[in-house]
């Protein structure tokens, strides 16, 4: 690590913990977005607070929005937390060939070279 005094894990609200890799300045911008979200949520003063799933969905939308504007945030994020006894773990990948959101049930790469994908009509009963 180049900067040893920089923390890459931050608590988000009462129920979540966010970890990041990638650009520190982009991570700081994400934290500004999240601080604003948590502040806005707490202003309602309704006794509810954002859980890890809501924070994960928000981060997914932020990262997607920035990618679509061709001004991406160069981070890979992992968010975990527990709210009301429900555990949650989700990741958000930066722009790569695997640049997708992964959450439970955890997704795996599909191997498209299987014979079923090459000729799906083979062995089918009836006519198309």
UniProtKB/TrEMBL annotation:
State the Pfam families in the record. Answer: Proteasome
Q: Which InterPro entries match?
A: Ntn_hydrolases_N (IPR029055), Proteasome_sua/b (IPR001353)
One GO biological process this protein is involved in is: proteolysis involved in protein catabolic process
Offer a single GO CC term for the protein. Answer: proteasome core complex
| UniProt-recorded name of the protein | Proteasome subunit beta type-4
Record lineage: Eukaryota, Viridiplantae, Streptophyta, Embryophyta, Tracheophyta
